[in-house]
Amino acid sequence: GPSTRATYEEKKAADQQNQTPFALTAFFCLLMAGLGPWVADAELFSAPMISRITLGIMASAVAAGVVAGAILSAGDQVDRFGASQRTALTTVSPIGLFGFLAAVSFWVSALLYLVIGAVQKSFTRSLTTIFWATGGITLAFGLSALFKSTETGVQTLTWIGNLVFLSCLFGWLIADSLKSGR
Fold this sequence. Notes:
The chain is mostly helical. Helix content is 72%, strand content 0%. The chain has 6 helices and no strands. The protein has helices at 2-35, 55-74, 94-104, 106-120, 125-146, 150-178. Helix 1 (2-35) crosses helix 5. It starts with a helix and ends with a helix. The model has no long low-confidence stretch (mean pLDDT 78).
């Protein structure tokens, strides 16, 4: 009947609205991943395990992370930033813990999140979304960098997630702070 049709149309419109932030994020991040390895080609580091990561890769990864976090927040795909932190003095903030770990190794942080989340049944929608976004962006950058060289691709895939995750958290925080009291 008419009420079923209206409900279907409302659901369809809501589904399309929910997909928009993901589509915008994917488009921008793929653009950055495609450009990153080819612009600002100066190699910054002499350490062998990060010697092929360039300024272009780093800058575009940071931009992709900030934009992804901001779009996901603006599109209400993640909760308010403060809602994802614990308030008890004895409890460590999951954002702080995984952010700190991701600064050292995104992949170790993601693995630990999976293990802790599974054991304690404590996955959160927001952190899961940020981890998925970071993983996708990191894979896109790694695959793009493989076209430059195998070594660049492997190093990018191994290390750039650290920057992307922290940048994604920053974008989320900034966009969330601009929301008016919702």
